[in-house]
Automatic annotation (TrEMBL):
<keyword id="KW-0808">Transferase</keyword>
<dbReference type="InterPro" id="IPR029063">
    <property type="entry name" value="SAM-dependent_MTases_sf"/>
</dbReference>
<dbReference type="GO" id="GO:0008168">
    <property type="term" value="F:methyltransferase activity"/>
</dbReference>
<protein>
    <submittedName>
        <fullName>Methyltransferase domain-containing protein</fullName>
    </submittedName>
</protein>
<keyword id="KW-0489">Methyltransferase</keyword>
<dbReference type="InterPro" id="IPR025714">
    <property type="entry name" value="Methyltranfer_dom"/>
</dbReference>
<feature type="domain" description="Methyltransferase">
    <location>
        <begin position="36"/>
        <end position="153"/>
    </location>
</feature>
<dbReference type="GO" id="GO:0032259">
    <property type="term" value="P:methylation"/>
</dbReference>
<dbReference type="InterPro" id="IPR050723">
    <property type="entry name" value="CFA/CMAS"/>
</dbReference>
<dbReference type="Pfam" id="PF13847">
    <property type="entry name" value="Methyltransf_31"/>
</dbReference>
Length: 251
């Protein structure tokens, strides 16, 4: 059975992750100066953060890569509408197979360390390693990655598809970045409110579809998907798994 098309998430949230307007602006400032810089966003979704970065840095250029064609089409429409299409290239591609045309002054991997594939226990290491290869000397990595805000219980681990050893503490995450040659310039984390706004956007998309398609042959499948997502969130990681935003320098 082919799954139906679901209302895009960007109709209900601004960014492709738990990120407020205020935090986004602050993270962009942490990447400055960006005069004549090239910014690369991997797993960019609909590239809202990348587009805002370019708006804040009028001489910068950018590349966004994501395998979701619907998201990239939305990103391109937004770039066109905001007069940014001449400074940004938005590409549908598998990041693990994609080749960069030039070194980047800034690489963004925001909640997307999985884009290189492989063993989930290696996702963070893969992202830190591969991003470093793409950075110009003295380049910066904006790294959004999960960590255990508090130790998960066995019941929570059973409710969510995240192995205990996949994540460590925030301090462990920063130490791992340093062990791969980075230096931390700034660190902060998504708030519970930011998580809730983002996850509510996911849930609303599913529930809207169920409301509008009550007699669809796919209704049971979509309801199961929505219920599973809610269970993972409320019985699993909510309040336990955090998301760090690290601004890292690659000397």
């Amino acid at each position: 059975m082919t799954s139906p098309k679901i209302t895009p998430l960007y109709e209900d949230v601004t960014f492709h992750g738990p990120l407020s307007e205020e935090r986004a602006a602050r993270l962009i400032r942490s990447l400055m100066p960006l005069d004549d810089a090239h910014v690369l966003d991997l797993g960019c979704g609909w590239a809202e953060f990348l587009l805002r970065t370019l708006e804040a840095a009028p001489t910068a250029t950018g590349t966004g890569v994501d395998r979701n064609a619907t998201d990239i089409a939305r990103a391109q429409a937004n770039a066109d509408a905001r007069g940014l299409s001449g400074r940004v290239s938005l590409q549908v591609a598998d990041v693990a197979e994609w080749q960069a045309a030039r070194p980047a002054d800034v690489v963004i991997v925001n909640g997307a360390s999985h884009v290189w594939g492989g063993d989930p226990l290696q996702h963070t290491v893969n992202a830190l390693t591969e991003a470093r290869k793409l950075l110009a000397p003295r380049g910066r990595l904006l790294f959004g990655e999960c960590f255990w805000e508090r130790e998960p219980t066995e019941a929570q681990l059973a409710a969510m598809p995240v192995p205990r050893d996949q994540l460590g503490s925030l301090a462990d995450l920063v130490d791992l970045a340093h062990s791969h040659g980075y230096r931390m310039l700034a660190a902060e984390q998504a708030s519970l409110d930011e998580w809730d706004v983002f996850e509510n956007g996911h849930g609303l998309a599913w529930e809207r579809w169920l409301r509008d398609n009550p007699d669809s042959e796919h209704a049971a499948e979509i309801r199961e998907t929505a219920d599973s997502a809610r269970n993972r969130r409320l019985r699993g990681w909510r309040g336990t798994m955090g998301l760090a935003y690290l601004t890292l320098l690659a000397p």
